[in-house]
Protein 1
Amino acid sequence: MWKLSLDSSRLTPPDSSPCGPPTRADAPGARGWCASASRLDRSAIPLKMPPEATVIVRVLIGTALGFALGFERGLRGSPAGDRTFSLVGAATAAVTAVSYQHSPQTVAGLITGIGFIGGGVVFHGEGTLVRGITTAAAVFVMAAIGVLVGTGQTLAAVILTVLVVFVLEVRHLPFLQWLDAEHYRDRFRQDSDPPIHKQH
């Protein structure tokens, strides 16, 4: 198989190498040293990074989308508001923009770290009441929005932000309350209700 040479744009045959073809006169460790030097040359190749202006624009967009989502959460009394969501949006957009091309696992670690922030806004109330799950889910989605922005998928990020705000606000819109399950809860039995025993 032909391959592209690292130091030029020409194609080289598969048996060629930077150290030349192997010969009987080669010392036992010569070929191993040559392979190590070749790997070292590859690691010395500079990583392709997006322009600084591109990174700045993406960070600003991530911050703005985070502020919009956090503003809605702040209006509804969430402990995580516009500041928290703005910081999450800026951080995920910045880290993704500079690392997703050469280190995709960094994005996975970033999402894991954001999960701890989401866990911090969930707390138990009286009895079995748990609050903050919706905000925790919104923080996770905000991280996904930041990843979209960081990879340059700005339109998808904006559409996802609008969709998330719509889902969070659907129960507060008079003409769309019929889409909210809370509107029909009294008509159905709950999972916590005792089972119905048949009369014999």
Protein 2
Amino acid sequence: MCVRTEETTFILTQNSKHSNIKMFMNLIQMDGYNPLSVDAMSYSFKEEYAEQINTLLEAFSFTPASVKSFKNKFTPGEIARIMRSQNQDWDTITELISKLVDLSEANIKATFKEGFWIDHWTYNLELIKSFKEMYPDMLEKALYKEKDYRFYVSPAYVLPRSKRYTVKEGKLVQRNGIQEIELEPSDDFKTWLVNDDNEVYKTNLMSKLWILAMVKFSVLDPNGGRLRNGSR
């Protein structure tokens, strides 16, 4: 999921300095694993900014009909396509998209595919280290102040040791470590971990790192020396 992306921290725009950290850390599950593939992302306007968003879109010559079409979600490409049809220049397009993204919540989508890999955890730590090197004055805010980090819920999970280990020819072997949930199109599958009130559970980055560190410690190999490198 997150392979060699730490360099992008140095080239992100002013409005998205740690967007990669937020996206990839959100996709780590409560068990410490993450899906393999990240799908196309869309954005949803935050309700508390509705009036500000409408004023902004109207100022950029968007019709009421087009504004209504973005009520549920939009992609930067859709905004750019409409503005290009109005002969707007790219600087203006970039300005509007940056402002809209700041007033929206990212709809992150991912695909499990064929397995989990423990080393993706280390790539996420590299992203945070790169951010610290580039923006040390913003590290405290990124770690503690932004309480919008979530836990992804995958339609697949790693089975407990009691169900994935078996004896073959007198030797202990591991096989069939993953259990996939067969979903019907009508199933209301929750993509994010929710609390007892059925609300998406959110915390700050440092809290999630602490939780994941404890989870990693719990899945050390039997000798207590190293982490297991994923399951398929």
Protein 3
Amino acid sequence: MRGRSRAGSVKSRRRKPAGPKRPSGTTRPRSSSAASHESEAARLASELSAMGGILRLIANSPSNVTTVLKSVAEQAAHICQAQYVDIFIVENDGLRNLAWFGEIKRTLAFPLDRSSVARSVCDMRPVSVDDMQNADDEFARGRETARKGGHRSIVGVPLIREGRALGTIVVSRTEMRPFERKHIDLLTNFAAQAVIAIENARLLNELRQRTDDLTKSLQQQTATSEILDVISNSPTDSQPAFDTIVRSGLKLFPDAAIMIALPDGDIVKSAAVADANPAGAEALRARMPLPLSREFITSTAILDRREVDLPDVRDAPPELAAGARNFLASGYLAMTVIPMMRGKSAIGALDLMRRRPGASVR
């Protein structure tokens, strides 16, 4: 028998034609998953950058709460892709708009109730409405505001500190595009930073007030000590004590002039005058003595044994017209007179005079 050819028993293999070569320098297209991850990373980086900027502003401007809250509003609008942001704080029984972003006709104060996203303060939780212009009657006030302002989707996130709502951040969009959970979470973080700013400002203001109170108390104690020291060294001569009293008064009221006036028969004389400006003191001395009558301001305080306070002597009552003309000729505009009482009798008066109109500082 003839043997079969081995070559005939082997099937031939054909190669597929090679596809076109990829031009050098090109890369494979990224998958949608990779693009999504990069987009999410960019969003997180933007949020972290915004929060970092706000925290730096809080550190650099601890007492300027309005500046910090305006930055919070701007960053919230940018990241949430919203047109308007308002930050309200609770004040008495209502809400006051403290900072905002976006040009719109605003209501700067309104009642604190549940008929708008102010409900976020009442309930101490975020409140989101997809289309406020067509909301139910439970949001009647918010619906009216939305129709006037032209916004649709809206969310309010409360500013909470130690179980108490200090206010709310309200973010509005002009189109109906409901806020996602990630935006509400972000606004919650912004709200926490706003609370830090508000509390920092409050604590600093309290500290400054206490410092001012202690400084004033120390000044008063020092002035009293100086006066008592003069009295003890000159028990039979009152003039040194009067001079010390008016000089000490300038320490407490540096923008004012101080005078001690004493009745002498039917007139009132100047016993001592102090003014940081010597010319001002001379101008006041030139208006003395005064008649001891109720037509003159200092005389009225002595005769009636009561304080007379005129924030603007130009507006003095008609019965003090003569005294007002005499006083205004000195160049001063405001005057407070306190009677010096001994028992039930007024033995003189302490005059506090100011060149600018306005209420006296007690």
